[in-house]
Design a protein that fits this description.
Helix content is about 45%, strand content about 10%. The longest helix has about 40 residues.
């Protein structure tokens, strides 16, 4: 009896374990998948501070802000700091980091990346997808001027937070139908019709008065008739030419050259709207700028 009872208990435990496995296996699999997904999110941060310019708390605050922008706009805003960029320029490094990190939302990989190289004191911005449309050269200039000035004063967190805020504003504006670009100069106003009519009347009246005064002065002149021959103006027998020896000689000429007026030249610093793009070594199209961080 004891052996039979032990065998029965053992069989019941085995059966209970199998039943529990069947019931809870899907839940365990789902938990594992969620854990892997969470780890995947951690492996793709939107703020990467390899140059140690921020505190842990500041990094977390920026990560939360950038994640909220990513979720709301479907647009990646990435901020990266490094001690140096090796053999690559700041622009090349920014483009490569964006591509290798698989950043960019949607099929067109919409987003932008701000890079700071503390070793060379350089910065670079890289735009891709809808970022090229929403962040024009003019718009980027406005953002970068404010951000780089903060960098020059060692206000790193403030500069990164400002970049995120301004990009959010510009992309939101573009998605609402207004891309921030070169201001359109208004056309000069035309004078209203009554003033034009008054000017015409004044011109006609002036012409009439001028004609009357000219006619009065002309009537006081002696009548002079034009002559068809130059000999009529010469005194008789005062000049004689020997037709067999007289001839015309070409002495000299005087040529005056006047340059044609030209319009203003483009010095390369004037924005004409939109974004100038380039193709990275990875074959992806990017916009963006770069420059030095000048300490003040």
């Amino acid at each position: 009896m004891n052996k039979k009872r032990k065998r029965g208990v053992l069989s019941f435990l085995i059966l209970a374990f199998c039943l529990a496995f069947v019931l809870f296996a899907p839940l365990l699999a789902g938990f594992h998948a969620a854990e892997v997904y969470a780890l995947g999110e951690v492996q793709k941060p939107l703020i990467v501070d390899e140059a140690d310019l921020l505190t842990v708390e500041q990094e977390q605050e920026l990560q939360n802000k950038l994640t909220e922008i990513q979720t709301r706009l479907g647009f990646d805003v990435v901020i990266v700091t490094v001690p140096n960029t090796g053999m690559l320029s700041a622009t090349e490094y920014a483009d490569k980091y964006y591509e290798d990190g698989d950043y960019g939302a949607g099929a067109n990989r919409d987003g932008t990346l701000l890079l700071v190289d503390t070793g060379n004191m350089e910065w670079a911005t890289s735009t891709a997808g809808y970022g090229i449309t929403a962040l024009t050269d003019y718009g980027l200039d406005q953002i970068e001027t404010e951000v780089v000035n903060l960098m020059a004063d060692d206000k790193w967190y403030k500069s990164f937070d400002t970049y995120a805020t301004r990009v959010d504003e510009y992309v939101t504006s573009a998605k609402n139908g207004h891309i921030i670009d070169v201001p359109v100069q208004p056309e000069p106003e035309k004078p209203p019709f009554p003033w034009a009519a008054s000017g015409g009347i004044s011109a006609a009246l002036g012409a009439l008065i001028g004609k009357i005064r000219t006619g009065s002065a002309k009537s006081q002149l002696k009548t002079v008739y034009s002559q068809t021959k130059a000999s009529n103006y010469a005194v008789r027998e005062s000049l004689e030419l020997d037709r067999s020896t007289s001839r015309d000689l070409y002495l000299y000429s005087n040529v005056t050259r006047v340059p044609i007026a030209q319009g203003p030249r483009n010095d390369g610093n004037t924005h004409h709207g939109g974004s100038v793009t380039h193709v990275s070594h990875g074959g992806m199209t990017h916009g963006g700028h770069s420059g030095k961080i000048g300490k003040r």
